[in-house]
Automatic annotation (TrEMBL):
InterPro entries: Alkaline_phosphatase_core_sf, Sulfatase, Sulfatase_N. Keywords: Hydrolase. This is Arylsulfatase. It comes from Pedobacter rhizosphaerae. SUPFAM superfamilies: Alkaline phosphatase-like (SSF53649). CDD domains: GALNS_like. Pfam families: Sulfatase, Sulfatase_C. Belongs to the sulfatase family. GO terms for molecular function: arylsulfatase activity. Residues 35-354 form the Sulfatase N-terminal domain. It comes from the Bacteria.
Length: 491
């Protein structure tokens, strides 16, 4: 073969290689960052406190847009109807009694979330996410329990509830000569990681909190717009004491509570605006929910259950069922309404699936609800739920739309007169609730006990209760669970 033919073959071969390489480049998918996640958690927001769930006398247009652009869940339950326990469940994907967290932790508590547990922040941080929390922690105020020890790179907020301060219900300091359960509480600190930025001493100070958390979240988004991030934004309000900043005072027809809700809606709007302006909205999952139902003995400073029974601190639906909205443009079909049984404990395994993060080795209780977020409403990822309260009391069990109330003594607001303007009304803490069966499809207010009509359903749900007791235990029947883990208790 002469040199000209060899040269021609080389040119042809080179051209083919170049075309193949160019084809690979053309067809190679551009690298897409994993989705950012913004998880907004309200405090004591009831099922009826958003416009898209029927709120009256104020509007929440920015929050309602999350529903219009994504999925609105109508059968969504918190892990337990009280602050610390609920937050422990949300962050770890576990029933809080599995990991030794109960009730609402007080200042200087020796108990806190065990750092051996895996939080959503831990999962995402391990995959390269920048993680931050701005708001109320309430899982232990000792340094050993801080958010920075639980997967969060940055933290600004309160260590516990905004009513845990030495201030009376009227917003004035408690006189030294007056006996009061809050008298010996320390001053309420606003923390930045391990440092105290300032102390929250007055209702005017409280009015700044929503704005501070919002500003911090916006700044974090701007600083991390080129890499994946997770923001956990647990607002301090509308937990009492409530206070709105000057620009929102007197703006609603529902007084201070409505003003506070309008400011929270503004906060959501500012965060969404920042995501849009940063070009991140289409690749960000925004979740909006609450830690439990409203503290309804506070009257006009409390929210609404939307007609559900009881409220905060109670395992009837008014205490445990809350709003949940998820926007994920291009993935979650706009305007979807999901009536399937779901819970805050389902966030961790779902986020793990979405972000290809490794689940913890230990047992969790959440299930992957990604099919529901994608609009596949024929799926039933969760069929059973356990309603625990107190240290470890199994008060009810549920299978899809059937709910069995187990005999127990607990909180009730029924027949009790609330008070207004920041003062608590009376509440019964020793009401006896007998065995009862409710069909939540027909009776979400749990008014009509139908156990006599459906004895076979009662028997089926009692078997589920026995499964819960074997796994997690039950103080009401003196049962010890096989699979519970300890919280972290300081000596």
């Amino acid at each position: 073969m002469n040199s000209k033919k060899i040269a021609l073959l080389c040119v042809v071969a080179g051209t083919i290689v170049l075309l193949l390489f160019s084809s690979l480049i053309v067809h190679e998918k551009p690298k897409v960052n994993p989705p950012n996640i913004v998880l907004i958690l309200m405090d004591d927001l009831g099922y009826g406190d958003l416009g898209c769930y029927g709120a009256l006398q104020y509007q929440t247009p920015n929050i309602d847009k999350l529903a219009a652009n994504g999925v609105r869940f109508t059968n969504f339950l918190v892990a337990q109807p009280v602050c610390s326990a609920s937050r422990a469940g949300l962050l770890t994907g576990c029933y809080p009694n599995r990991i030794g967290i109960a009730g609402a932790l007080y200042p200087n508590s020796k108990l806190g979330l065990n750092p051996a547990e895996t939080t959503i922040a831990d999962l995402l941080k391990a995959t390269g996410y920048a993680t931050a929390m701005f708001g109320k922690w309430h899982l232990g105020d000792k340094p050993e329990f801080s958010p920075n020890k639980q997967g969060f790179n940055e933290y600004v907020g309160l260590p516990y509830s905004n009513d845990m301060w030495p201030v009376d219900y009227d917003g004035l300091p408690i006189p030294k000569n007056i006996e009061h359960r809050k008298k010996n509480y320390p001053a309420l600190p606003l923390l930045s990681n391990s440092d105290t930025l300032e102390y929250i001493r007055t209702l005017d100070d409280q009015s700044k909190l929503t704005g501070i958390y919002t500003e911090k979240a916006i700044n974090f988004i701007k600083r991390h717009q080129n890499s994946p991030f997770f923001i956990y934004l647990p607002h301090s309000m509308p937990h009492v004491p409530i206070s709105a900043s000057a620009r929102f005072k007197g703006k609603s027809k529902q007084g201070t509570f409505g003003d506070v809700m309008m400011e929270i809606d503004w906060s959501v709007g500012e965060i969404m605006k920042t995501l849009r302006e940063s070009g991140l909205e289409n690749n960000t999952i925004v979740i909006f929910t609450s830690d439990n139902g409203p503290w309804i003995n506070y009257g006009n400073h409390a929210g609404s259950t939307g007609g559900l029974r009881e409220g905060k601190g109670n395992t009837f639906e008014g205490g445990q069922r809350v709003p949940c909205l998820i926007q994920w443009k291009g993935i979650a079909p706009a305007g979807t309404i999901c009536n399937k049984l779901t819970s805050t404990i389902d966030f961790l395994p779902t986020i793990s699936k979405i972000c290809d993060a490794k689940l913890p080795d230990h047992k969790i209780d959440g299930v992957d609800i990604l099919p529901l977020i994608k609009g596949n409403l024929e799926r039933h990822p969760r069929k059973v739920f356990y309603y625990y309260y107190g240290k470890n009391n199994l008060e009810a069990v549920r299978q899809e739309d059937w709910k069995l109330i187990l005999p127990h003594q607990g909180r009730s607001y029924y027949g009790q007169l609330p008070k207004n303007d920041g003062f608590p009304g009376t509440v019964s803490e020793s009401t006896l609730f007998p065995l009862a069966l409710y069909d939540l499809r027909r009776d979400p207010a749990e008014n009509y006990d139908v156990k006599e009509l459906y004895p076979e359903i009662v028997s089926q749900l009692q078997k589920i209760a026995e499964e819960a007791r074997a796994d997690l235990g039950d103080d009401l029947t003196q049962r010890k669970g096989k699979n519970i883990r300890p919280s972290n208790v300081l000596k």
